[in-house]
């Protein structure tokens, strides 16, 4: 789900909380050593997102927040803030010359530079959270 979150809106917050869960508490986020990534440069996006990116050569930036049931990708475009909410069951991550996050036929690719490499531990934490989420729904015993 892609939302314009420049201004706070109770309806948008409810949609986000229903889709990816509520934010972690302050104490939980400290125990996890942070739930947000540093700012990363967007290298490429799917066709659906092209209209939301800067049309001139200015770099586009985004950061990621972990939630209990998914992630939020915050994209900054000038003075506008856009949020892409992705539940863990739709999240697919590829590591190809940076990182590429896919969901519902759309993607965002982050440039492989210093800011991306600083987020290596964050991506590891994000994958661990996805694995924990997926392990709740272990259907392995149905196939035996």
TrEMBL record:
Name assigned to this protein: Arginyl-tRNA synthetase
């Amino acid at each position: 789900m892609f939302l314009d979150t420049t201004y706070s809106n109770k309806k948008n917050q409810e949609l986000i909380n229903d889709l990816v869960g509520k934010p972690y508490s302050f104490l939980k986020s400290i125990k996890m050593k942070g739930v947000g990534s540093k700012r990363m440069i967007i290298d490429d996006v799917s066709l659906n997102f092209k209209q939301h990116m800067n049309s001139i050569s200015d770099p586009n930036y985004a950061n990621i927040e972990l939630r209990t049931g998914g992630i939020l990708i915050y994209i900054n475009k000038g003075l506008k803030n856009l949020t892409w909410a992705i539940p863990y069951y739709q999240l697919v991550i590829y590591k190809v010359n940076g990182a590429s996050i896919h969901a519902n036929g759309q993607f965002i690719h982050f440039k492989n530079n210093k800011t991306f490499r600083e987020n290596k531990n964050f991506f590891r934490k994000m994958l661990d959270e996805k694995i924990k989420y997926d392990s709740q729904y272990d259907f392995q015993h149905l196939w035996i």
